[in-house]
Every structure is written in structure tokens, then in C-alpha cells.
């Protein structure tokens, strides 16, 4: 009973935060709402005893990926007003996609009445069993190459994000190391001879 209450409570917060991601007027607020989504999703993973996936979701997505998103959003200086101009034009398409998703979810919820048996509650883990060890064994044996490929894709994404922030644009203050090193100290420092202060 308690697990069901926690599930519905955190699911409601997750849906509300997801709506905040797409409805927030500020891009930084959208990123913060997405962080809240990840935290609630991690709690849902904990409810089904998938501790490793919950910790990875918090550490990797919230601790690394979302911080990267936040820095990219702030450093790219995204023109929010220009992005809002197409919201009304794309609203019908977005509503259609949302309707399709709702219909699919309703079908899944009512599929038991169509004669398809859904799996029941998850079985508790055996004594001494570790889902972390099981996931690691599969990840580094059967899915070793896809795992490394995913790491390379993330590395390329990080390099691309850094390259976007370093692009030339008006008003960008760039550091010229060669000019800083070759500067003449006489042009930067001016020594002024002043008489000592007199006591009153």
C-alpha cells in the first residue's frame, strides 16, 4: 500500500515537472524542471529495487549531463523570443502527438481486459543478490562494444558543445595569450613619484 502511494505521488510530481520543462518561459527554468524529473524518476527506480539505475540516473544525468546542458544554455545566449515565435505554429502538431501518446497509454492500461496477461509485482531479490553486479556482468560482456560506442557519442557531444560556445560572435571576449605574454611592462605600469604625506 505504501509503495503504491509513493508511486502515484512521485509520478504526479514527475508529470508536473515534465509539463514545466515544455511550458517554462525561461530555458534555465526548463533545465531545472528536467533535473526534478530525473530525481523523481530515480525514486521510481528505487521503488522497484533498481538501486544502480537510480544512482546512475542521479550521478550521470543530474550531476554531469544536466550541468552541461545548463552551462550550454547560459553560454550560448539563446534568443528565447525567437524560439517562442514558432510555438503557436507548432502547437497543433504538438497537440496531435500528445493525443497519440495518451491513446497509446490508455491502450496499455486497458490491455488486460483484451485478454493479455501483464506481469505482476516484481519478485524480491534473493539474499545476497546484487542487481549492480548483474548489470555490470552483462554490460561489460554482451554489450561491451555498444557501451564503448555510447561513450564515444557522448564525448563527441561534449566537444561539439564546447565548440559552439567558442564560436566567433559579436561581443565575445576572447583571450589572446600571445599578446598577453609579449606585452611591454612599460605600457602597463606607470610609476608615479609622490612626496610623502605631511603630518598635520
Explain how this protein is built.
This protein is an all-alpha fold. The chain has a domain at 1-80: Up-down Bundle (Four Helix Bundle (Hemerythrin (Met), subunit A)), CATH 1.20.120.1200. 68% of the residues lie in helices and 0% in strands. The protein contains 9 helices and no strands. Helix 1 (2-23) runs antiparallel to helix 2 (27-47), helix 2 (27-47) runs antiparallel to helix 3 and helix 3 (51-76) runs parallel beside helix 7 (144-165). The protein is elongated. The termini are far apart. The model has no long low-confidence stretch (mean pLDDT 79).
Structure described in brief:
With 200 residues, this protein is mostly helical. It contains 9 helices and no strands.
Count the beta strands.
0
**How large is the radius of gyration?**
27 Å
Could you please say which CATH topology of the domain at 1-80 applies here?
A: Four Helix Bundle (Hemerythrin (Met), subunit A)
Structural category: mainly alpha
Beta-strand residue fraction: under 5%
Element order: H for helix, E for strand: HHHHHHHHH
Taking pLDDT < 50 over at least 5 consecutive residues as the criterion, the unreliable ranges are none
Q: Output mean pLDDT.
A: 79
Assign a percent range to the helix content. Answer: 55-70%
Q: Assign the CATH class of the domain at 1-80.
A: Mainly Alpha
CATH architecture of the domain at 1-80: Up-down Bundle
Separation, N- and C-terminal Cα atoms: 84 Å
Q: How would you name the CATH homologous superfamily of the domain at 1-80?
A: NADH-ubiquinone/plastoquinone oxidoreductase chain 6, subunit NuoJ
Main sheet overview: none
Amino acid at each position: 500500500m505504501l509503495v503504491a502511494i509513493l508511486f502515484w505521488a512521485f509520478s504526479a510530481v514527475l508529470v508536473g515537472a515534465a509539463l514545466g520543462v515544455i511550458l517554462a518561459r525561461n530555458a534555465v527554468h526548463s533545465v531545472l524542471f528536467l533535473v526534478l524529473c530525473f530525481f523523481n524518476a530515480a525514486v521510481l527506480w528505487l521503488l522497484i529495487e533498481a538501486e544502480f539505475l537510480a544512482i546512475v540516473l542521479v550521478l550521470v544525468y543530474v550531476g554531469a549531463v544536466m550541468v552541461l546542458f545548463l552551462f550550454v544554455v547560459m553560454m550560448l545566449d539563446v534568443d528565447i523570443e525567437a524560439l517562442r515565435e514558432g510555438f503557436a505554429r507548432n502547437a497543433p502538431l504538438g497537440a496531435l502527438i500528445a493525443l497519440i501518446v495518451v491513446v497509446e497509454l490508455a491502450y496499455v492500461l486497458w490491455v488486460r481486459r483484451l485478454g493479455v496477461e501483464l506481469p505482476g509485482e516484481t519478485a524480491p531479490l534473493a539474499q545476497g543478490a546484487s542487481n549492480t553486479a548483474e548489470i555490470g556482468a552483462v554490460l561489460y560482456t554482451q554489450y561491451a562494444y555498444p557501451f564503448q560506442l555510447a561513450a564515444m557519442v557522448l564525448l563527441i557531444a561534449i566537444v561539439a558543445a564546447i565548440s559552439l560556445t567558442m564560436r566567433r560572435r559579436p561581443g565575445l571576449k576572447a583571450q589572446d595569450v600571445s599578446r598577453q605574454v609579449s606585452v611591454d611592462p612599460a605600457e602597463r605600469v606607470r610609476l608615479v613619484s609622490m612626496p610623502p604625506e605631511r603630518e598635520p
